[in-house]
Amino acid sequence: MNTNLALLLLLAPFIGFLFNIFFGKSIGKTASGVIGTLMIVVSFIVTLYFFGAITAKPEGIHISLFDWIQISNFKVDFGFQFDQLSVLWLLFVTGIGSLIHMYSISYMHDDENMHKYFAYLNLFIFFMITLVIGSNLLVLFIGWEGVGLCSYLLIGFWHKNQEFNDAAKKAFIMNRIGDLGLLIGIFIIGSLFSTLDYATLKTAIAGATDLNMYWISAAAFALFIGACGKSAQIPLYTWLPDAMAGPTPVSALIHAATMVTAGIFMITRLNYLFDLAPDVQNIIAIVGAVTSLVAATIALVQTDIKKVLAYSTVSQLGLMFLALGLGAYEVAVFHVITHAFFKACLFLGSGSVIHALHGEQDMRKMGGLKKVMTITFVTFLISSLAISGIPPFSGFFSKDEILMVAFEHNKILWFIASLASLMTAFYMFRLLYLTFFKEFRGTAEQKSHLHESPTLITFPLIVLAILATLGGLISLPTNSWLNEYLAPLFTKVATEEHHFGTSEYMLMLVAVIGGLVGIGIAYSKYIKQNLVPEEDEKITGFAKVLYNKYYVDEIYDSLFVKSINGLSKFFRDNVETTLSSLVFGLGKVTNEIGFQGKKLQSGSIGFYLFAFVLGICAIITYLFLAQ
Amino acid sequence: MNNILNEIGIENYIFLSVILFCIGVFGVLYRRNAIIVFMSIEIMLNAVNLLFVAFSTYHQDAQGQIFVFFSMAVAAAEVAVGLAILVSIFRNLGSIDINNLKNLKG
User: Fold this and answer.
1) Backbone phi and psi for residue A248, each to the nearest 5 degrees, phi listed first
2) For residue A609, which residues of chain B lie inside 8 Å, CB to CB?
3) Model's pTM, two decimal places?
4) Does A596 contact chain B (CB < 8 Å)?
5) How far off is chain B from A162, nearest CA to CA, in Å?
6) Domains (range + CATH), chain B
7) Does the beta carbon of A601 lie under 8 angstroms from any beta carbon of chain B?
8) DSSP secondary-structure letter at A557?
9) Are B71 and B56 in contact (CB under 8 A)?
């Protein structure tokens, strides 16, 4: 029963993929989209069943399909593990996945390759489910690589634009660097414990007495590198903003809600391993905090509506990593969930705006959309409030918990995270004011075409906005359903109860005031003073550095791309010519010897016989002399 | 023991054998008729056989003679094959002069 349902859960999107790739073109655009969506809905319904099953059976369901690899005492089976963590992830992957599929039916309707789009999107969900429900690291790795592939395919979906292709390649290559780290981590774990299975690993670590801490730290660090690549952390984050080249629903699904949280999933999954490596945890926390701040500063001055959201995603992921690094896995998971709601809603909202403006993404050419696009505006406003951490929206609870955990451990990290949160409020409301308030700044033709998006687009927005509002209920500060739900996953003896005192309330107040200050600054700049960001060439000073993303791309380009190109050139011009002249030289010598030697083959048997006799005489003479 | 080596010394057999061998070698080198070349090779073979037998008797050891039987059997087989090849060549080229056989010239 469970096995069949698990297969249904996994294969429904895959069937959707096969169907769309082979028959999608012939059955028409809408039909292909509807089938793609229905397949994900099937997965979502099965997920609901598993959610119920796990609630009834907290120790989880383990399904082993077959023995995959067996070498002496090292065994990997192809199996699935349903527990609190995987079911939570499944819920929002398939849930938000269905909504975004539905949204895409309308959003992508003018695209000639819509069937291909849905095929890729289904394939993505298939791999994401594989990643989440795999019972060992190797199955996770299949999903991990698969979602990377789908991300590549979808970023470069409009492949006639070379820039988009470059962005796709950049995402793929950056991810490969991280994947190498993940692989190395898996190898180390495999050689240390001869198993890759989560459950076995957990008992092995819990039971072991003489663990090699050095190698465990190395494994944790390598896995963290993998997470950095997938979840866009410093130094591997530059691919995510470029990934906005893909269609907007893709950005919402893959590059905000699901795939980029895979790193957090993996670290949470292996929390017992990371708990053993406090040094690595510190690195994770610092990287997370720094990423959140750096990305937030860049987002302050971006003018492309999707770029702002992309840097905001990087920044929020940084906050999640901060929580992971501080050992507060359940808090990170909480923020993943609320972030999935409000960020998906924001991306879909921006998609709705872009749709209405026929592809315009520059906020300087927007404005005044509040009157025409009321639903989009309201949902966008709710999500912006949520991400800014204004109560009672979901983002307030999750962000507040992260800040609280940070405050307990390290005041500097807390300060950095708070600063990033303040900036978040600022740039989100800057985006909101520039897009929806004041007068429309686009062309007259665009203005005449302005319209609210159709129901297929607004319905997911409304659902996500409701979730973004209420999402915080799953983990209230004093009564956290989520923390209790996730408790079986963690080795820690029950999460230390937050004794709710004055300092906690003060922190909350500070966070809210920070958010309000951010909003206030944005209000005074863009509503009161009626400012509009300047044209690219007029940006000067530090703003220019920010606008150009700290020139990180240029630095990477000169540090890595140029140096590798230089190395390649060196090898091509020097090493390869030397090697090839050596090889060619050998060939020439052989050729010459053959050419001369061929004269010996005169064809005269008499001569051969003479040479024969002479040779034997020579050998005999030699033998005599040798004695 | 009535040993033939008592009447004719071993060295004479060696001389004879060497002479036969050299005749064979020069036959191979100077004659152009493939059959004569072939015969010369047989002479060389038999020179060696003679030496075998002579030393076999000299050492009072039958092994050499046994070996000669094998050697002769192999020579017979070789002759059969060799002559067949020569017949085939003659049919194809109409001559068995080894100077004409130059198809394998490099």
Assistant:
1) -60, -40
2) 28-29, 37
3) 0.78
4) no
5) 58
6) 4-97 (1.10.287.3510)
7) yes
8) I
9) no
